[in-house]
Design brief:
- By secondary structure, this protein is mainly beta.
- Helices cover about 10% and strands about 35% of the residues.
- It has a four-stranded antiparallel β-sheet with strand order 7-6-11-12, with no helix packed on it. A three-stranded parallel β-sheet has the order 1-2-3, with no helix packed on it. A three-stranded antiparallel β-sheet has the order 4-5-8, with no helix packed on it.
- A hairpin with a 2-residue loop joins strand 11 and strand 12.
- The longest helix has 11 residues.
- The N and C termini lie far apart (about 55 Å).
């Protein structure tokens, strides 16, 4: 169990969100035994993990409430199949940008400008495995609809949380490579598959045109877009 104590925003702020040297020494000693190591992280923010990142498994417990111990134990011993996803990226080193889904990494050539986190926004494993396929996308009356099939390809029941992103292959202004427009939560038995759909407002794709000086209008650019689900994508057009 590694991390930090609870603290109020402000007094608990730090410019060095890293595991302490004492915790690093401790995890190194445990890993030196050669036995499998699971690190449970109790933190208020993403922290640079150092060698703790080499553990056989990592569980982000964040700062749980009074039932946090039971909840974490249920995950560790398999009573609960985890389905949580990271709401923010987890950096590899100090200076790396910690980003949410709709933020842009630096556009310069500095070493830390590239978006290359230890774990990206939306990462999260399960005791089973899932796949997505047969992605289609369409629009109607200001709405977008993305349909796809989710399959549980593992050996036990689980919950798949599937994000739906949209990307714009060509844009007159700089845009995030992927923009989250929705997600779905699908409970599946082992070997089961299900077709699902996620709807979103096309207005979610609006961008500020011209120079960003606080007075520019927002509009949805006409043209080609792609709905991205897992490794698959499907094109659609805003007219």
């Amino acid at each position: 169990m590694l991390g930090e104590k609870p603290g109020a925003e402000g007094p608990a702020d730090t410019e060095n969100p890293v595991l302490t040297p004492e915790q690093q020494t401790w995890v190194d000693a445990v890993q030196a035994t050669g036995k499998p190591v699971v690190v449970v992280l109790l933190t208020a923010r993403p922290q640079v993990l150092g060698s703790a990142a080499d553990a056989n498994a990592l569980v982000a417990g964040w700062l749980p409430g009074s039932e946090g111990g039971r909840a974490i134990a249920d995950v560790l011993f398999g009573a609960v199949n985890p389905s949580g996803k990271l709401p923010i990226s987890w950096p590899k080193a100090l200076g790396d940008p910690t980003l949410t889904y709709d933020q842009l990494p630096g556009a310069n050539t500095a070493a830390n400008a590239k978006y290359d986190p230890l774990y990206a926004f939306g990462h999260g494993l399960s005791y089973t495995s899932f796949t997505t396929s047969a992605v289609t996308a369409s629009t109607s009356r200001g709405d977008g609809v993305v349909k796809f099939t989710v399959a549980n390809t593992g050996g036990r029941a689980g919950t798949a949380i599937v994000p739906v992103h949209v990307r714009q292959p060509a844009s007159p202004v700089l845009t995030p490579d992927l923009r989250l427009v929705g997600f779905t939560r699908v409970e599946l038995a082992a070997g089961q598959s299900k077709q699902v759909e996620v709807s979103f407002k096309l207005s979610q794709l609006a961008l500020t045109v011209g120079d960003v000086d606080g007075s520019g209008r927002r509009e949805v650019a006409r043209g080609a877009y792609e709905a991205v689900v897992g490794a698959d994508k499907a094109g659609f057009t805003v007219r």
